[in-house]
Amino acid sequence: MNESRKTLLALIVLLLSIFLPIIAAEPFDQEESTLVIRDVFMKTSTAYLWLSPTIHVITIMLLFALYRYGSRVGRIADAFFGILFLFFAFSNHIAVTENYGLVVLTGNVVPILIVGLFWMGEVHKPLNVYVFQRLPAWRYWVVPFVFLAFWSPINAELNPYFNPLLLLTSSFGVMYCPTTPLIVAVLTLIYPNVSIFLLRITSFVGLLIGSFNAMSVFVMPGYTLWNLVLHTPLIFISVYGLLIPIIVKKDFSSQEKKAE
Fold first, then answer.
1. d(CA 152, CA 244)
2. Confidence band of 185 (pLDDT split at 50, 70, 90)
3. What three-state secondary structure class fits 127?
């Protein structure tokens, strides 16, 4: 199977899996789906925050190591990102809730699990070359969005909370939505020396989950506009990750024309 067919098949499977039904111990009406999802995230969003400072520090150290040593630590980075996705698949989307008992958000578990497994495959046969070359200035637009996701300045009521301590204790590293933007952004900053397949499926799932999350502002009680703002890094960077082969090619062509 050639690369384009492999990618198309993977994207179709990922798209279909996002619509898998929620599994819950207690039956519920379809209209209650957003309430079920809310109850799960109320549990999982705080369950592993004790790990957050450690993952923040490891991430900073890893980024420094990638910048300093490049692909010599590439497999470590691939494994770290893969483990995070596997962790998110189960820790973020399975919970015992008061109203519905054990709940499995299958439509999130399966696609994120698939992405995590492909990242672990990258460890075995690496294609990502973590060499950060000098890029046109516009390609660094992802950095402030990554910083916003890394900080995630929000409180328990989902309102703005610009506490500097959150740079060490936010939900980055323990929740899928604030962590994925950094992973995709790193791939865009080393593009084109990446696994295009891995970039596409990671970005595609990020866009799907980010888009569904953004729609929650209209249907989920208690979902705030600020929470929507904090999901823009996931949505914007995921779209960019999908389109970067086209965008960079056009930019390169325009630079060639100017040079002529």
1. 25
2. very high
3. coil
Residue with tokens 């020396």: 193
The mean of the pLDDT values for the chain is: 94
Return d(Cα 36, Cα 44) in angstroms, integer: 13
Strand partners, 95: 103
Give me the pLDDT at residue 21, please.
96
DSSP state of 260: -
Q: Reduce the DSSP state of residue 95 to 3 states and report it.
A: strand
Q: Give the count of domains, the chain.
A: 1
Place of tokens 């549990």: 43
**C-alpha separations of 230 from 161, 204, 235 in Å:** 12, 18, 10
What percent of the chain is helix, strand and coil (3-state, nearest 5)?
70, 5, 25
> What's the token pair of residue 233?
């890094």
What is the spatial distance between Cα 168 and Cα 84, in angstroms, rounded to a whole number?
A: 17
What tokens appear for 72 in the block? 């010599």
